[in-house]
Every structure is written in C-alpha cells, then in structure tokens.
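Example 259, ligand ribulose-5-phosphate.
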Amino acid sequence: MDWGMKNRMSRLIRPETGRAVWLAIDHGYFLGPLSKLEDPGKTVKPLLAYTDAIMLTRGVLRNCISADLKVPIILRVSGGNSIVGPALSDEGIQTCMEEAIRLNASAVAFSIYVGTKHEHNTLMALGELVNEGQRYGIPVLAVTAVGKELEKRDARYLALSCRIAAELGAQAVKTYYCEDFKEVVKGCPVPLVIAGGPKLKTKLDALHLAYDAISEGAAGLDMGRNIWQSDNAVGMIKAIKRIVHDNASIKEAAKLLKI
Ligand code: 5RP
C-alpha cells in the first residue's frame, strides 16, 4: 500500500486496536427520509464525538454537515436505484473519485449485488472504482448488499460476496453478521466490518450483535439504525465503542445504557 492509502486506512481503523466504529447515515440514497434521519445533521451531531468515521452521501455531507467536521468521511459513491424502483440491485458509480477528493473523503463505499442480474455491472464498477482509488490513494469499502432479500444473509453467500469484493481489490468489506460468521472472516483477506441491519427488538440484542461479530473476527461495525433510531443513541454508540475498542463484555457495555 502506498503512503496515502495507508494513512487514510489508519484514520479509519485505529492502528492501536485494529478495529473501528463507523456511523452509517447513507440510507437515504435509496430509502429516502427514514425515521430519525429526516434531519441527518441534527441526528448525528451528538454522536460525532464517539465515531471513528461517518458514512454518508455527498448530498447529505454538503447540505447537513458542517465543514469543520473532524471525523473521517466514508463517501457513499454508488446509487441510481430506489426502494420503489424496478431493481434495487441496479446500482452504479454515482459520484466520481474527483468529487470524493474534493470532499476530503478518507474512503469511498460501493455496493455489490452478487447473484443478482446486475452482479456483473456492480462487480465491474467496483473494479473501476478500485483502479481510481489506487491512482489517488483512496481506499474502497465494498458493501455486500442484499437489498430486500434479508434471508440471503447466510455464511455461504456472504463468504462468497466478501471474498469476491476482496479479490477485486476492495481495501475493506462491509457485510452482515451471520451464523458461522468465522467462515466469512476466514475467507476474506481484508478487514471486515458489519452493518447492524434493521433495528433489533432490544438494545441488548444490538450489543450481542456487536460482541459476537467482534469475538468472531470482525474489525468493527459500520452501524446505523441500531444507534440513531435508539431512544438512547449516545448511550448506544458509547456502549458499542466499549465493546469494539476496549473488549468490554456485554454486561459491562449494558451498564453504560443502564439496562
Ligand atoms: C445501506 C448501508 C448502510 O450504511 C448499512 O446498512 C448500515 O446501516 P445499518 O446498521 O442501519 O444497517 O450500507 O446500504
């Protein structure tokens, strides 16, 4: 890895722990203004002090986030689809690398849809993005998207998607936690972070998810709804951070939430 690429990676994944807690607020690019993210700037303001990076689109960054932001940016650069459109997997590069550099992004994020009719296009676009990223020293985070098919989140499918993303050159991969997650980790030679997915029934469930993923080899979490849709969003991100960076137990993390 070249110096610039290494430097950006070290801003995203703490060298002292090899781990990361990222806050994802990019959902609107295909889901619109979902609950608690109607005003993203207001939602994230109290959380910025506790995250290692923030994942979002250029539109939200420019319009809702102050330019004195100290937190590294993971810029969502894929799009072109919507939850009500004909094919959620029909996603391409929507924001160019020059724009990512202009916005001082530390990484760009792109979704791949393995096993769908748009598999080929999304994988070719990932390759293109990696080529551009290599040229400018910008890491690419590949997101193994499943769209509406949440049942696809099993170890066999996710191991396949994560490995393909790494083989095509992504510097990090974002996926889902699943049963036998260790198999997914084992087959992926780059750091894996997990999404939280839709809001879980309880805060304790979200802590379990974080703890299990970290214990089984995830480098961290890129979590959204289970943090900012929580009735104690600051408490949630602090508790998650304790698990990820301080190896806290679920019980210790739960104490921060008074649950
Ligand atoms: C959407 C994404 C989201 O950033 C990701 O799903 C993380 O958020 P959540 O924890 O709410 O699932 O990549 O495609």
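Summary: The chain has one domain: 3-193.
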